[in-house]
């Protein structure tokens, strides 16, 4: 089956800093989503981005499907950005969604 | 509130107990899912229901028993669990299978 990797696994940022999270996947996908899981376990859908670039406030995401990766940009980070960021891809042949292992982000004041 | 509601938020149960987790969505979605998240592990898909029929069971032990009485409700019945089953159990729904997930807040389960 498809493999999903995320990097870095852990990240500590000073409040106000910018960061880039990466998601690599091993095969063609129908769709890709980015999620943020807050420290209380709630998973929030950030972007539904099979290709191209989208922006939502301080967050933006870019997926280059032909090169099998996606990037999540966080600008001017805030402590509320802390948590785990997952990317999830939908396999083309099995109509199944596979989650990556996540990037754990800590933003410190 | 995401539109997917899970109850209870926290549950502590003994290994001989029987309990149920509940998930409810009123988003008009046709697919619902149970995921398990253990510490330092990726999310694991447990069950998928599409149009109220189970379409996937990822080799989950029989001590976990799902039920989907209608497209808005999903249950996970638990019996004779083990301490290693302690985890965050997440419910999700999507308009169709594998597309556009919305997650609930999860149930934090502790088996003692």
Task: Summarize the topology.
The complex is a heterodimer of chains A (109) and B (112).
Chain A: E1 4-7, E2 10-14, E3 19-25, E4 29-37, E5 43-48, E6 52-56, E7 59-64, E8 69-74, E9 83-91, E10 97-99, E11 103-108
Parallel strand pairs in A: 2-11
Antiparallel strand pairs in A: 1-3, 3-8, 4-5, 4-9, 6-7, 7-8, 9-10, 9-11
Chain B: E1 4-7, E2 10-13, E3 18-25, E4 31-37, E5 44-50, E6 53-57, E7 64-70, E8 73-79, E9 87-94, E10 102-103, E11 107-111
Parallel strand pairs in B: 2-11
Antiparallel strand pairs in B: 1-3, 3-8, 4-5, 4-9, 5-6, 7-8, 9-10, 9-11
Average pLDDT rating of chain A: 91
Shape of chain A: globular
Strand content of chain B: over 45%
Count of individual beta strands of chain A: 11
Main sheet characteristics of chain B: 7 strands, mixed
Tell the overall outline of chain B.
globular
Element order of chain A: H for helix, E for strand? EEEEEEEEEEE
CA radius of gyration of chain B = 13 Å
Largest chain interface and its two residue counts?
A: A-B, 22 and 20 residues
Oligomeric state of shown chains: heterodimer
What is the helix tally of chain B?
0
- Mean pLDDT over all positions of chain B: 89
Series of secondary-structure elements of chain B, N-terminal to C-terminal: EEEEEEEEEEE
Biggest sheet layout of chain A: 6 strands, mixed
Number of helices of chain A: 0
What structural class should be given to the helix and strand makeup of chain B?
mainly beta
Please report the total strand number of chain B as a whole number. Answer: 11
Beta-strand residue fraction of chain A: over 45%
Helical residues, percent of chain B: under 10%
Please give the share of residues in helix of chain A: under 10%
Keywords:
heterodimer; A: 109 residues; mainly beta; 6-stranded mixed sheet; 5-stranded antiparallel sheet; 11 strands; globular; B: 112 residues; 7-stranded mixed sheet; 4-stranded antiparallel sheet
């Amino acid at each position: 089956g498809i493999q999903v990797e995320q990097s870095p696994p852990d990240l500590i940022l000073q409040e106000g800093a910018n960061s880039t999270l990466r998601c690599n996947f091993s095969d063609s996908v129908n769709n890709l989503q980015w999620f943020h899981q807050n420290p209380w376990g709630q998973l929030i859908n950030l972007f539904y981005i099979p290709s191209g670039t989208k922006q939502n406030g301080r967050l933006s995401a870019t997926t280059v499907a032909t090169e099998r990766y996606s990037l999540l940009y966080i600008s001017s980070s805030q402590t509320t950005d802390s948590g785990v960021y997952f990317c999830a891809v939908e396999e083309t042949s099995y109509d199944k969604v596979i989650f990556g292992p996540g990037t754990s982000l800590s933003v410190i004041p | 509130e995401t539109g997917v509601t899970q109850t209870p938020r926290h549950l502590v149960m003994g290994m001989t107990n029987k309990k149920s987790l509940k998930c409810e969505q009123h988003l008009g979605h046709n697919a619902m899912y149970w995921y398990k998240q253990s510490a330092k592990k990726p999310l694991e898909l447990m069950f998928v229901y599409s149009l109220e029929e189970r379409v996937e069971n990822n080799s989950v032990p029989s001590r976990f028993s799902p039920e989907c009485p209608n497209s808005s409700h999903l249950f996970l019945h638990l019996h004779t669990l083990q301490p290693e089953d302690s985890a965050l159990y997440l419910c999700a729904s999507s308009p169709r299978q594998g597309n556009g997930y919305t997650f609930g807040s999860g149930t934090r389960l502790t088996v003692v």
